[in-house]
Write a structure and sequence with these properties.
Layout: H1 3-25, H2 28-57
């Protein structure tokens, strides 16, 4: 796991927490911010996944 994968996963979890807290307190703004973090986290994790594939494809069996 590279740093992009780790950061992305953490961002995604933080976004889910923020979204749920927004639901609990009735804040649409916090819900939207949480969803934004989740999307950003997924994108960063996907980028990290792609980096791993590229790195692994360069290795010889």
């Amino acid at each position: 796991m590279n740093k992009n994968q780790a950061k992305g996963a953490l961002k995604e979890v933080a976004g889910k927490v923020q979204e749920e807290v927004g639901k609990l307190v009735g804040s649409k703004e916090q819900q939207v911010k949480g969803l934004g973090k989740q999307i950003s986290g997924k994108a960063e994790k996907t980028y990290g996944d792609a980096k791993e594939v590229i790195k692994d494809s360069g290795k010889r069996p």
